[in-house]
């Protein structure tokens, strides 16, 4: 039962690592990658005692390596670009002026 649980945990964290690695949240993929790697090592050590080599070890390590490569690639080559902030500041000022004009046009009842 313990080995099956570790295999399932390894597969799910490896798949989660690959999914997070291809999304904009690639920095969060590191945690599932580490967990999948540890699970793969545990399965490897357990299978070494039993002297049988299941394919699940290879699949977990393959997905872990793919997720790790994608995460490293995105962290090295992805640059976040900051746009022209002057246009955003001007838009904020215009919205503030429009809001002030709308508030001035509203009539309140003094009967309250």
Automatic annotation (TrEMBL):
Q: Which residues cross the membrane?
A: 31-47, 59-78
Under which name does UniProt file this protein? FUSC family protein
Write down the species.
Winogradskyella aquimaris
Q: Which UniProt keywords apply?
A: Membrane, Transmembrane, Transmembrane helix
